[in-house]
Amino acid sequence: MILNKKILVVIPAYNEERWIEKTVSTVPKFVDLIVVVDDGSVDKTVESIPKNEKVKIIKHPYNQGVGAAIISGYRYGIDNNFDLIAVMAGDFQMTPEELEPMSRFMIENRVDYIKGNRFAKKDTFAKMPFLRFTGSYFLSFLTEKVTGLKNIRDPQSGYTIITTDILKKIELNQVFPRYGYPNDLLGKLSIVNAKIAEFPISANYNGQSSGIEPLKVILPYSYLLYRIYKERKEKIK
Predict the structure, then answer these.
(1) pTM above 0.85?
(2) Is 154 within 8 Å of 118 (Cβ atoms)?
(3) At the fourth CATH level, which superfamily is domain 7-235?
(4) Which side of the chain, N or C, has fewer Cβ within a 10 Å radius?
(5) In the chain, what is the greatest distance between 2 CA atoms, to the nearest angstrom?
């Protein structure tokens, strides 16, 4: 608990046997519960998850996508009366120590949804693979155009915290289940006038591989961004 807010951390995991134990073990102590959503892993991810009273495992019978894994965690948080739900990747790309200041900033400023911004720190360019850096910047530009959000510079960041109150205003079964999930969620949050902010975070890359193949996501992302634009235009008339 932090500032009287009950907090859940959701960790989506797909084939993360190398990193999942470290990721779970380093989640800050103030977190009330950790939900690891195994998204149909075919390696030893589940066996590698630390087992204790603060860790719950949700298993998908097959791979449904990172967005679908996060939504499963969100549903659990809503059903079990958590106030805040944070998301941390299963491959230890998030710095655990940054969760507390990000949570405090969110609560003190009455923010509905906060995203870590890797580009707010000067050393990000040196750490982040060039293709990922340029792709993130390009998607940032497009996401701003289709959502109307002017203050989001790192839409692809997976380090986030959201209130369950704002989640209840979103049709979770309509959120895009795969890699376009963060952009789609931003679009839906913009429609319900959520207060959205970013917080400077570190970019950590220690040999983790990206699951995104650029040529395979161009068409799905193009369709998704058009869908976000169309949905927002229809609902804010």
Answers:
(1) yes
(2) yes
(3) Spore Coat Polysaccharide Biosynthesis Protein SpsA; Chain A (3.90.550.10)
(4) C
(5) 50
pLDDT score at 67: 96
User: From residue 143, how far is each of 87, 180, 184, 233 by CA, in Å?
Assistant: 20, 10, 9, 14
Sheet holding 84-87: strands in order across? 55-60, 33-39, 7-13, 84-87, 160-163, 113-117, 196-200
121 closest CA partner among 210, 5, 209, 200: 200
188-192 long-range CB contacts below 8 Å, 24 or more apart? 188/231, 189/112, 189/113, 190/147, 190/148, 190/149, 190/232, 191/231, 191/232, 191/235, 191/236, 192/166
Tens of pLDDT, residue by residue over 161-185, are 999 999 999 999 999 999 889 999 9
Position 80 scores a pLDDT of: 98
**CA dist., res. 233 & res. 4, Å (int):** 38
Count of beta carbons in the 10 Å neighbourhood of residue 210 = 14
Per-domain boundaries in the chain: 7-235
